[in-house]
Design goal:
Mean pLDDT: 86
Radius of gyration: 20 Å
Largest sheet: none
Order of helices and strands: HHHH
Strand content: under 5%
Helix content: over 70%
Shape: flat
Number of strands: 0
Distance between the termini: 30 Å
Number of helices: 4
Amino acid sequence: MKITDLRHFEKLLREKRKSIVEKIKLLDETFEESSSNVGVEENTHPYHMAELGTDESSKESLSIVLDNLVETLREIDLALTKINEGTFGVCENCGKKISRERLEAIPYARYCRECSEQMEAS
């Protein structure tokens, strides 16, 4: 891969990384606020039981979103490491180049489209 392409993808990955870190901080703050307010409204009356269930469901959904963002952050960091090592854009399964179109859509892709589809199918 050309050095200009590597710089392009490095910039793209760093921008995505920054955006995800900001989202994680925001969601983490939201999660902490919701945890500290469990069972208490502004007027200190307990929530209705149905509201407690909704709150737990919201916290679970928030936790899933946070987990997904953290995993994406790991993938981005791995892609940045691969840029430094000279292995960026190479499928970890078959060793072929990952298409530019795929890397533009998912710059932290570890597998070419064909291998990714095979893995998802099995």
